[in-house]
Amino acid sequence: MAERRQKELEGEVETLKERLEASQRAWSAMRKELAQEKSQRTAEVDRDRLSMAAEQQARSFKDCLATMLSDGVVIVEPYEEQIRHRVEATIISLHQRTAVSTGQLPLRYPGRGQVRS
Predict the structure, then answer these.
(1) Domain residues of the chain, as ranges?
(2) Which of 15, 16, 41, 112 is the one with CA 20 to 30 A from 73?
(3) pLDDT at 116 (0 to 100)
C-alpha cells in the first residue's frame, strides 16, 4: 500500500512538473510576444515622430522661402505652387534683364512660351 501511494505521489509530482514546464513555456512565449509588440509600437512611434519632424521642417522651409520671395508688391504664400511660380517669374525676369543689358535677344522656353535669355 505504501508503495502504491509512493507511485501515485510520484505520478502527481511528474504531472505537476509537466504543468509547470508548460506554464513556463507559455509565459516565455507571452513575454516574447509582448516584447515584439513593444518593439513594433516603439518603431511606429519613432516613424511617426520622424515624419512629424520632417513635415515641420518642410513647412518651415516653405515659410522661409515664401518670406524671401515676397516683396512690397507680391506676397508669396508658403505653398509649393506659389513658391515655384515666384521662382520661375524671378528667373525669367533675371534672364530678361540680363538679355537687355547685354544686348542679347531673349529665347523662349521650349513648349512654354516663356521668354528665356
Answers:
(1) 1-60
(2) 112
(3) 47
pTM of the predicted model as reported, rounded to 2 decimal places: 0.59
Q: 70 to each of 22, 28, 80, how far by Cα in Å? A: 71, 63, 14
Tell me the backbone φ, ψ of residue 115, rounded to 5 degrees: -75, 140
Which of the residue ranges 41-45, 84-88, 102-106 would you say has the lowest mean pLDDT? 102-106
Distance between CA atoms of residues 84 and 65, nearest Å: 10
The cell for 85 is 511660380
Query: In Å, what is the CA distance from 103 to each residue of 35, 88, 93, 97, 113?
Result: 72, 22, 15, 10, 21
> Side chain identity at 71, as an amino acid letter?
D
